[in-house]
Amino acid sequence: MHPLIIYLIQVNLALVLFYLLYAFLFKRDTFLHLRRFYFISSIAFSLLYPLLVVPGLSDVFNFMKDEPKVVEATVFFEAPTMQMIIDQPEEAVRSFNIPWEQVISIIYIAVTLFFISRFLWQLISIFRMKVKSKKVSVSGVDVYELRTDITPFSFFGMIFINTDMHTEEELNQIIIHEHTHVKERHSLDVMLIEVLLLFSWWNPFVWFFKREMAMNLEYLADKGVLRKGVDSREYQYHLLRLTYHETAVQIVNNFNVSQLKQRIMMMNKTKSSSLKLAKYLLMLPMFFVLIAANSVYARENEQIIQVPSPPPPPPPVKLAETDEVFVVVEEMPEYPGGVDAMMRFLGETIRYPFEAMTNGIQGRVICNFVIEKDGSVSDVQIVRGIDPHLDDEAIRVIEAMPKWKP
């Protein structure tokens, strides 16, 4: 599997675990700033831990298995189905299977490019609004005055609002709310999760992260308004009264009037006991477990079975007008069902690579491999190859073989 795919899987697996920890333990408390730290540190750790390997950590916990003892057998073979497909291209087309790995890769790249394009377009839209808007001062805060009917929002140091749509009292509260977003640099949180979504759009838990992070930022901004002495009931009434026909782009801090029930409940919620702060220490064992698992995985991939170098292969033996496979070994392992069963397996399993087919590449691939004591196939190596795609397909088919009788 490609290292980048493995990295993405590791990152998203960690994000799933961190979200579940949040949902079960942290979602209902009132430690909003600590919750924000949890979101950011969880994402940052998930992105970095696949790169962290602690030597010897797997040995401490005795996770590693003993190295297998192998029985060496050198097998030289020519896949008759592959040869048949190469010599008869029309048959290859009829027996061609859909390359699902390539299809999935193309879909992933296409959707990722769509999200990247949308993200860039939203950035451009914000700066176009800035250019078209007039900069004014409201309650001592510089804002960009909009002429369209959209929700007030902030993006880094910029606040956008249509001042004509609100009373002076409402405008003052909205400015305090958005200025809290600006002062506490909430746009950094938004950009972090948005960039993560560009490549992890397929993981529903990343979307859950985005929803919870956005809601927590709204909680913090609401808290900032109430700290300024605004009456909570009056502020909640204004939130209920404000409705908008259009929302600004997704990568900004909107003056969000959706999910008002949760926001009002949080404003009226009793402050959580300080003793509950201790539960956030559960992040530490989660960090440790993920680093340990990654160290074990890295150690396993570094294990190399040392086997004696095989003797030079004898000259290949051919029977006239046949495609039979000849196996030359010192001690003959037996394929379950015999040679006929192996031929059927090869014919059903080999998928002629699309790239080799389109480029007209043909030939024979000779491999050797090791039969373990339990009959499994390992250490597949190309003795004589003709093309990386055909070589990879030969290795894939051999590794997919059922266990032999050693």
Overview features:
406 residues, alpha+beta, 3 domains, five-stranded mixed beta sheet, 15 helices, 8 strands
Descriptive notes:
The protein folds into 3 domains: 3-64 and 279-302, no CATH class; 70-96 and 306-399, no CATH class; 104-201 and 223-257, no CATH class. The chain has 15 helices and 8 strands. It has helices spanning 3-26, 32-48, 57-60, 80-87, 89-94, 100-132, 168-183, 186-200, 204-227, 232-241, 260-267, 283-302, 338-349, 354-358, 388-399, and strands spanning 70-71, 134-138, 141-145, 153-155, 158-161, 253-254, 366-372, 377-384. The strands form 2 sheets. Strands 2-3-5-4-6 form a 5-stranded mixed sheet, with helices on both faces. A 3-stranded antiparallel sheet has the order 1-7-8, covered by helices on one side. Helix 1 crosses helix 9 (204-227), helix 1 (3-26) packs antiparallel against helix 12 and helix 7 crosses helix 9 (204-227).
Q: What level of helicity do the residues show?
A: 40-55%
- Alpha-beta content class: alpha+beta
What count of structural domains? 3
Poorly predicted residue ranges: 62-95, 303-308, 317-322
Estimate what percentage of residues fall within beta strands.
5-15%
The main pleated sheet reads as: 5 strands, mixed
Lateral arrangement of strands in the main beta sheet:
2-3-5-4-6
Provide the residue-averaged pLDDT: 80
Shape: elongated
**SS field, number of helical segments:** 15
Give the ordered list of helices and strands.
HHHEHHHEEEEHHHHEHHHHEEH
Separation, N- and C-terminal Cα atoms: 28 Å
Instruction: Please tell me how large the radius of gyration is.
Output: 31 Å
The tally of strands reads 8
